[in-house]
Design brief:
The protein has 2 domains: 62 residues, no CATH class; 116 residues. The chain is built from 6 helices and 5 strands. A 5-stranded antiparallel β-sheet has the order 3-2-1-4-5. It is elongated.
Length: 199
């Protein structure tokens, strides 16, 4: 195989070739950046910085750092917590989710242990859609009054997101898909809320 002169030179002196390419890239960068830095606004800013007392420049830099830190703290402190995000998910499904039939399979603790409490922390349930079976679990630890009287193998109604059928609930603050026994005060909880009966 024959090599052109330039190709042969690259093979014989690879380090020279890399230095030449790096120099060309540097010159190209300088040629692009130099006209921008020569704009009057940049020249004026550089002139002002040179004339200012270093303490003033440091103060300005400190203010910028503090402002950036304050913005970061504000964004972080206003980020919704996991509980707030879960409650928002429940309420969205309670308002707009579709309904299907399901069944309670198990009751567990948040540590994934069997629960014998009348108000379990997690309810495991199952439902079918379009030939697919979905086994899901909902954290109900913040809704103890809504799940009192449940039982394993209990038929329930499930609200789910039609765009993501695995995203579902069986109870929320404003809706329940559980048939519950009357509580100790005699209040009848056998009837589902009216919203739960709407298909």
């Amino acid at each position: 195989m024959q090599l052109h002169t330039a190709d042969a030179r690259r093979l014989r002196y690879p380090s020279h070739t890399r230095r030449f390419q790096l120099r060309n890239a540097t010159l190209t960068f300088e040629a692009t950046l130099k006209p921008i830095l020569q704009q009057p606004i940049f020249q004026h800013a550089a002139h002002l910085m040179r004339e200012q007392d270093p303490r003033i420049v440091g103060g300005i830099a400190g203010v910028i750092v503090l402002a950036a830190g304050g913005a970061w703290w504000y964004v972080k402190s206003h980020r919704p917590s996991a509980e707030e995000m879960e409650r928002s998910r429940r309420e969205e499904l309670a308002l707009s989710g579709r309904i299907t039939d399901g069944v309670i399979l198990d009751a567990r603790t948040l540590g994934n242990e069997d629960s014998v409490s009348p108000t379990p922390e997690v309810l495991v349930y199952s439902y079918s859609l379009a030939g697919l079976v979905y086994n899901c679990a909902q954290d109900v630890s913040t809704l103890p009054n809504e799940v009192v009287g449940f039982r394993i193998d209990q038929p329930v109604q499930v609200r789910y997101d039609p765009r993501n059928p695995g995203n579902s609930i069986i109870v929320s603050e404003s809706w329940t898909g559980l048939w519950l026994r009357p509580d100790s005060s005699g209040r009848d909880q056998l009837q589902r809320e009216q919203t739960g009966l709407d298909r």
